Amino acid sequence: xxxxxxxxxxxxxxxxxxxxxxxxxxxxxxxxxxxxxxxxxxxxxxxxxxxxxxxxxxxxxxxxxxxxxxxxxxxxxxxxxxxxxxxxxxxxxxxxxxxxxxxxxxxxxxxxxxxxxxxxxxxxxxxxxxxxxxxxxxxxxxxxxxxxxxxxxxxxxxxxxxxxxxxxxxxxxxxxxxxxxxxxxxxxxxxxxxxxxxxxxxxxxxxxxxxxxxxxxxxxxxxxxxxxxxxxxxxxxxxxxxxxxxxxxxxxxxxxxxxxxxxxxxxxxxxxxxxxxxxxxxxxxxxxxxxxxxxxxxxxxxxxxxxxxxxxxxxxxxxxxxxxxxxxxxxxxxxxxxxxxxxxxxxxxxxxxxxxxxxxxxxxxxxxxxxxxxxxxxxxxxxxxxxxxxxxxxxxxxxxxxxxxxxxxxxxxxxxxxxxxxxxxxxxxxxxxxxxxxxxx
Length: 441
Known about the structure:
This protein is 39% helix and 18% strand. The chain is an alpha+beta fold. The protein is elongated and about 170 Å long. It is found in: Nucleus, Nucleolus.
């Protein structure tokens, strides 16, 4: 690829992303138990809303509506189509995100796509048709009434808008028709496959242009095929008239569909088919004020009374919320005060324990009456006087050894004193000194 092709590809992808982000997107899902047929109806509606929908959206039993709302924002989802089933009816809700309104419909009748297609002799449905969004056609929605206009606006906003000056006709492959019946007050939902064929020529010529050669064994001249179109099946003989013939402004896909030439637009229903009846319209995501109800009508006094009760409930809710916030603040302050008191008590206790230990701890090597050095000198002097020799090492323990070994364990015991008795002989003196020395060991 060349550099210009790369630039064109990048520009095209950027334009596609911008276009994709500006068009409406839809979530189609169900809530509660719905059954097999309604589940298939949900799948068919996802096919209708393609390509701007979540085709493989997974729904679990424990999911709530808030889960879908939380996911819808980042994904650019603008509408919800929610199906529910009760014992008697099937309901469909259409909601506009994020602030509503919400339209409630009762599905009076429905037909699945497989049933519609199976009833046709030849259906025209292929995968390429679902690569572009369908064309929306509204009929009989110009009737006076707030709920009618709101319905039409909701349906219009669910599908991308069309610019007729920039529209490519080849992108229109499907059509969604919504017809409102003012008598029964029901909305008919139809989904069609769209095909354009040239007019002004016989069916035999069309067959030749489509490269489908009929059986010409009974013809004498090829002009009979061009003029009469014999030996063609009845299913090919579709009626064209003023109701479906138009002049094409562009070249349309298919043989013979040229610009400024007349062609016939033919629709083939591919389903699903639904008959909807509007029940009510409410503000928000189904939690706001009821704007319209088809079965219940209230007077102005009743509406005012409902508004007063709702305002009273809102005020009561705000008051409860305010009291809860005050209680939470008081509990937090009380908890902080108790924590501060506990820290102060711990600090004060540690200070008191530190002061007691400094005052009451005694020096283990300190004697009660006299210094250790003087005591050691007295014992050595006594040994000299009693024995007449210098004391050997180990008989009188040094001061440091007594402090480390025996002084701490014997500091509270009374010490044995040796009276000076010059008349004792040497043996008794040595035994007495040994007993004293052993008491320090």
